[in-house]
Design brief:
Layout (H helix, E strand, L loop, with lengths): L1 E3 L14 E2 L20 E2 L2 E2 L5 H7 L4 E5 L2 E9 L2 E7 L5 E7 L24 H10 L3 E3 L6 E6 L2 E8 L2 E8 L1 H7 L11 E2 L2 E4 L7 H5 L4 E9 L5 E9 L3 H13 L1 E3 L1 E3 L2 E3 L1 E9 L2
Antiparallel strand pairs: 1-20, 2-16, 3-4, 5-6, 6-7, 7-8, 8-12, 9-10, 10-11, 11-12, 13-18, 14-17, 15-16, 15-20, 18-19
Length: 278
């Protein structure tokens, strides 16, 4: 059975075999000491780092969705924390969101703190004191439910509920401007991401089924301005070539609505996650 966009409430990262396909991010290979700048990290992720580091640490994500802002990768209850990141087409991270997992059957999840900023569900004054001790610069915010600080060239935003920190975000300047935290408010994006019109079903590969092979595949589709899948590639492998090939074939046969650039059809990228269970 091919499961589309399955959301697991408890992540069992060690249960599935998976491998990571190398992606060239097109960046300088070795910066010199004079060019290295501090990097903001939160929840095991780094702003401008690769999302594949998160796959190595926590296993495949539970959800991958493409939005107009980028590609959202979500891990639910990954080592006791809900973790989500927003990445670009090259898999570089622009935004990180950390929060306590939702209660299950009325039972609250144990509170686990991110190592870098252990202030979830703590009073705002404690979060402010900790950030101030790390030489973070407070940023003016008109919304009383939000407090923001400039840290290591990026922005940390705490979302407040009942005087306590409910969620923590880390954003680079581009994501912060898009969210409306800096730069005078968020503007409607000129880019609209491609969308699925129809997802083709290719069935479970017989050899994989006979071997009881299962796993998660994450693929990238380059959709041209006519809505055709110009190129499909595997980002995160299931560990089984037949399952990976089934996902690629499904996307090659699927139909898409093209991206829009300033209202006109244009090429764009869509990312898809599929979990295969025999």
């Amino acid at each position: 059975m091919r499961l589309s966009m399955m959301v697991a409430m408890v992540v069992a990262a060690g249960l599935l075999r998976h491998s990571i396909v190398a992606v060239d991010l097109g960046r300088p290979s070795t910066p010199t000491a004079s060019t290295i700048t501090p990097t903001l990290t939160l929840g095991g992720f780094a702003i401008d780092g690769s999302v594949l580091d998160g796959v190595r640490a926590f296993g495949p994500p539970d959800v991958v969705e493409t939005s107009d802002a980028g590609h959202e990768w979500h891990w639910y209850d990954a080592r006791g924390i809900d973790r989500a990141v927003l990445v670009d087409d090259a898999l570089a991270i622009h935004e990180i969101l950390i929060e306590r997992p939702a209660a299950v059957n009325g039972q609250a999840a144990p509170l686990v703190q991110p190592d870098e900023l252990p202030v979830l569900e703590k009073p705002l004054r404690e979060a402010a004191a900790l950030l101030s001790s790390r030489r973070a610069a407070s940023v003016m915010e008109s919304n009383p439910a939000i407090r923001a600080w400039r840290v290591a060239g990026a922005l940390v935003v705490t979302e407040i509920a009942g005087g306590d920190v409910a969620r923590i975000r880390a954003l680079d300047d581009g994501a912060a401007a898009q969210r409306g935290y800096v730069g005078g408010g968020g503007a409607a994006p000129a880019y609209r991401a491609p969308r699925f019109l129809h997802v083709a079903s290719v069935g479970y590969p017989e050899r994989a089924e006979s071997l009881h092979a299962h796993g998660v595949v994450i693929a990238r589709v380059d959709v041209d301005a006519a809505g055709r899948p110009a190129r499909v590639s595997v980002i995160v492998s299931s560990g089984n070539a037949d399952l990976d090939n089934a996902e690629v074939r499904s996307l090659q046969l699927s139909a898409f609505k093209p991206a829009l650039c300033a209202g006109q059809p244009c090429a764009g990228v869509l990312m898809d996650r599929e979990e295969y269970v025999p």
